[in-house]
Amino acid sequence: MKTPTAITLHAKSRVLEVAFADSAVFRLPFELMRVCSPSAEVQGHGPGQETLQTGKRDVTIVSLEPVGHYALKPTFSDGHESGLFTWEYLYELGANQDALWARYEQRLAEAGVSRDAPMPARVSGGGSCGV
User: What is the separation of C-alpha 103 from the centre of its chain, rounded to a whole number of angstroms?
Assistant: First the structure.
């Protein structure tokens, strides 16, 4: 199991820095965390139920709560607070960050929407980050 040794919230640069016992250190942009939230609101309850997230470039984390000894629960400035980011999921986000950004940009292009577009009522299909 991947276990963090340090977690630092950099509010000004909008990055969560997570260091792990294996010496890996990841700087996770808040926007990436928000658009790849493991919540049902973003991921849905099964394949094809994902919601593509837009308009999250300037999102911040307003609070960060530990959940037991296995996860963090961020509250984002847009009100989203239902995703539990396990240590394993944070590690996967960090290790796969470039591929996740590329996948997100591809999904935006396929949906014909801008990263900065306001969130519509519902944009389905391919919002998942695939982690």
Answer: 13
In angstroms, rounded to a whole number, what is the distance separating the alpha carbons of residues 131 and 128? 8
pLDDT 10s digits, 54-98: 999 999 999 999 999 999 999 999 999 999 999 999 999 999 999
How many CA atoms are closer than 13 Å to the CA of 41, on its beta-carbon side?
13
pTM attached to this predicted model: 0.89
Q: Answer yes or no: is 124 within a domain.
A: no
Q: Please report whether residue 80 resides in a domain.
A: yes
Q: Does residue 127 form part of some domain?
A: no
84: its two tokens: 């539990």
